[in-house]
Amino acid sequence: MTVQELPGAGASHRSTPPPAWRPRTDAAPLLPDPEPYRVLGTPAAEKLDPELMRRCYAELVRGRRYNAQATALTRQGRLAVYPSTVGQEACEIAAALVLEEQDWLFPSYRDTLAAVARGLDPVQALTLLRGDWHTGYDPREYRIAPLCTPLATQLPHAVGLAHAARLRGDDVVALALVGDGGTSEGDFHEALNFAAVWQAPVVFLVQNNGFAISVPLAKQTAAPTLAHKAVGYGMPGRLVDGNDIAAVHEVLSDAVRRARAGGGPTLIEAVTYRIEAHTNADDATRYRGDAEVEAWKAHDPVELLERELTARGMLDEAGIREAKEAAEAMAATLRDRMNAEPVLDPMDLFENVYAEQTGRLREQAEMLRAELDAEEQS
Amino acid sequence: MAQALQRAMRDAMAQDPTVHVMGEDVGTLGGVFRITDGLAKEFGEERCTDTPLAEAGILGAAVGMAMYGLRPVVEMQFDAFAYPAFEQLISHVAKMRNRTRGAMPLPITIRVPYGGGIGGVEHHSDSSEAYYAATPGLHVVTPATVEDAYGLLRASIASDDPVVFLEPKRLYWSKAQWDPAAPAAVPGIGKALVRRTGASATLITYGPSLPVCLEAAEAAREEGWDLEVVDLRSLVPFDEETVMASVRRTGRAVVVHEANGFAGPGAEIVARIQEKCFHHLEAPVLRVTGFDIPYPPPMLEKHHLPGVDRILDTVARLQWEN
């Protein structure tokens, strides 16, 4: 039965028409382009800034080595877990490089590399994953929020912080990182909605790496792209090739500039791929085939940039060697420092639960103290 | 009480420019209970903000604001409406100080109108204090008097730790005399008060059940019982000293609250009393609580809520030797 055939269809039920309705915002300028934005391998690459790109290259090489070293540390039992960003380094590095010193980064548990590229001590960045404490640094010192394990819950924090900074008249932009799986969470929705209503200076970067552990994007969302979700909140959505660091850097820079100028939030979807498993505890062969992984390896972020820069004469053999040597030196230092046994004080368990310890905690601390003393004597 | 709460926020905002009130309907409307009435007008919408309708978003944004040095005071409108914000509360608000090893405390006050007795329909009368009290890192306080409504809210806003501030809805319209020009000095968070002294048994209670307990104590005089009434005021931290001192004096105790009994705050209090005061007890410590049922429909709530008679019947059972 079509609408026209429905009983009463076509007849006017309304004695008076409803008040005139119009959408609040023109949706068209908010819509992402149908194809991810690319720079490398396109004519747009002619305008690349050689100095910035050489820095990106050095960071990419260092990031790839960092991923390898961290994965090795899990095999040696030095890290409890490591969620790899091999294949996603361009997103991580670009996110760190577009921020000014006063800006804030809100990473998820997978974004250690972004925090390190922003300047966080690699050992402090690995504190959570090593298991010796939850957060190994003062977030205010680096303007990096604690690595966030629950999905998307850091996004409303980014909105609140950016909003507070703006209320105080400070020039601060917050950049929040989230994965494709995180976009299904309620906090993703609430954060984007708050950000748009408040016109908060926030940039949301979704690293769509294809899988939420094992669940592919097609089972995660029915949206045309994750960037399309922006339109529903009244903010622009941008789609970018997440393996093309020049493109990610440019799209992020535009969004950061826009936020800084009072233009409000942007949602960016970077299309990338997680080359390794979700973590060392995951068996990726159960949910994806080698052909798919190999196809993405052919679109590697480090090689993409290296090819472009070499072809354009912005990078030579010496430059490549220099980047690799710097990365090796970083890895060696990291390995040495991570091999040192962390010194832990069990009495720290009772510190920093409250500003002032409660009576109950004092009792429990005394109990542990006595247990430790007894252990020492035996 | 509504007026005292409003005054507490107003004074805190006037004194400290970092205090921001936020929540659904708190601005133009002044809150569904009018607790934030006039704040947006006096301090501007930037400091008393109508947010989108999203509890996780409200509390999550408050976390970010507190990270940047503000002191958000968040309204959750109704007890059961706060549940969408539980992940933010438990995973972030309660833990931020601890997970950053003291580097980033979160001074957030979360105002939750709670409890029944106002004829509210489903999802408007829950007593959710056990969930909050079971979460390390949160302070949980609840005023039962107009003075405490003012004093405890000021103390909560001034606290460098997150505080869940439970407002007994049915006491909002309490007509107790209170001079806003001279707010009484109130002990801060973590101190219980003996509201009525007595010798034969202690009633331990808080929030909406305090007036019921005081009424029961008066009625008990006819039965020859001289009841002491302790108002906890703060569930976390728990003032063990005041409670135990009272129980040692009287030798008998009943814990009274509206929340469900099973795994409710009373269970913890009874356990602690028997751990600390076993040799002083003349009888088992008893509880008068709401039934272990989802909050009932308004026409039946009077049967669920602990009333004077149920308290007196329980007190009668303290004559253990019989």
UniProtKB/TrEMBL annotation, chain A:
Sorted UniProt keywords: Oxidoreductase, Pyruvate, Thiamine pyrophosphate
GO biological process: branched-chain amino acid catabolic process
Pfam family, one: E1_dh
SUPFAM superfamilies on file: Thiamin diphosphate-binding fold (THDP-binding)
Swiss-Prot/TrEMBL cofactor(s): thiamine diphosphate
Every Dehydrogenase E1 component domain range: 67-330
Entries under InterPro entries matching the protein: Alpha-ketoacid_DH_E1_comp, DH_E1, PdhA/BkdA, THDP-binding
Region spans: Disordered: 1-36
Molecular-function annotations in GO: magnesium ion binding; oxidoreductase activity, acting on the aldehyde or oxo group of donors, disulfide as acceptor
NCBIfam families: PDH_E1_alph_x (TIGR03181)
Name of the protein in its database record: Pyruvate dehydrogenase (Acetyl-transferring) E1 component subunit alpha
Taxonomic classification: Bacteria, Bacillati, Actinomycetota, Actinomycetes, Kitasatosporales
